Amino acid sequence: MLRALLAVTLLIGPATPSPAAQATQVTGAYLQITAEGVATGRGFEGASHAHAALAAMYDVTGDPQQRRTADELLDYLLQRRPGHMSTDLALQVLRSPYLQGDSRLTTNLETYVTSVLDLYAAQPDTVLRTGDIRTLTGRAELLVNYAEHLERRSGDPARIQAADTAAQAMLDRVAALQYTRSEAVAAFDNDRYVGAFPHFVTGDDGSMGSWDVEHWAPAMLSLDQYAAVRALATGFGRFHVATYNNAAASGTRHLLGTTEIDPGLIYAGAPAGFPLDGATYEIGEETGEHPYLITYGWSPNAIAQLGTALKAVRDNRVKVPHSSAWLASYWRGTPPRSVLAPGLFWHGLDAKVAYTHRSIEATQLPVPADFPWLDLDRTTFPGTGDDAVRRDGWYDGSGRGAMSAVYSRLAMTGYVESGGRDLDTLERAGRWWERMVVRG
């Protein structure tokens, strides 16, 4: 009998796993897969992007495996940096029932918001007049959402007031930085920038730094533009200040060019990748001065973030002003006045948000071998992603063959935030992120 028991034990193993056989812990996540298919940059930053993406997916799918991996990643992140928080993560916590359930994150959120409010109270000029505009707009959007979050929970009125006061000062600054027609011509000799925002917040008018904008379209500033429009629209929804409505509406002009995926519109001239300039601009049709509104065309991260900006404009019921003075200063003649009535304007927003969802779903790998990637004359993509390391993710776009955790996180969180709900897309993306996670 003893000999038989020993034989069974050898076949099936001990009842309790040995330490070596126990589940391994998360030790980071990869930051990039190169064009050659090599995963690189494992560590904290990759893990933070993987966590944000999986958390966004889980809020939609309820997939227990996505939840387990997100939990493991968060444990790793907070072990490495107990106070881990950023503006992007703070905004996501305020939107996510799952993330709000973790007391460590809500504590870090409060600490982070306090640091923003304290900095504004002590050094308002530093907050309002220096840095990247996405820092300014991100803080403004965060404080608006935070104040609303506190109100829903009957929070401290004094803290709500402090958040509102700082947010309005920041939004006033964002609106003031928006280029009028005369400012765009004076700064860049190019009125395409009417309604756009500077990249760097410096001095009174901001600066584009050293970028050569003679041939570069406003799409080169896509993430800046989207963040500014989103913050202003969110601010209008809370404060009902006409200035925020008007600035959000003007910034949206650049974003409405197309609702279809038609690579035939891509401009093949020099520099490659920029859409035709001066085309007829109509909501819902395959025309537009700026059809894709992103660097070099097919960039899923920017397409997804575009959806978040337009959804904010729609949800907060931004309307296009009709005063002749405003049209003269902040419009460029397109789209035509006929589509600016609230019903048609909002219909165009709905159509463009739906387009962003279709675009993300259509470019998830693998794609057909003849998929019209941009810049194939200059950059050859390494296949269609039908392999173990690329399947279910997205290339960076912009004529590059690499895959980035940064851009993939922006694609995933933006898709979900703007209302993307295709479960197959989200479940496939979850599998790609699982492969990016490192355990040891």
Measured by DSSP, the beta-strand proportion falls in under 5%
Rough shape? Answer: globular
Helix content: 40-55%
- Give the ordered list of helices and strands: HEEEHHHHHHHHHHHHHHEHHE
Radius of gyration: 24 Å
User: What structural category arises from helix and sheet content?
Assistant: mainly alpha
Spatial strand arrangement across the major sheet? 3-2-4
Task: Compute the number of helices.
Answer: 17
The unreliable regions are: 1-22, 209-219, 260-297, 374-380
Mean pLDDT: 80
How many DSSP-defined strands?
A: 5
**Distance from first to last alpha carbon:** 40 Å
Biggest sheet, open or closed, and with what strands and sense?
3 strands, antiparallel
Write a concise synopsis of the structure shown.
By secondary structure, the protein is mainly α. It has helices at residues 2-12, 44-61, 64-80, 87-95, 97-100, 103-122, 124-129, 133-152, 157-177, 181-188, 222-239, 242-252, 300-315, 324-330, 342-363, 405-417, 423-436; strands spanning 26-29, 32-33, 39-40, 403-404, 437-439.
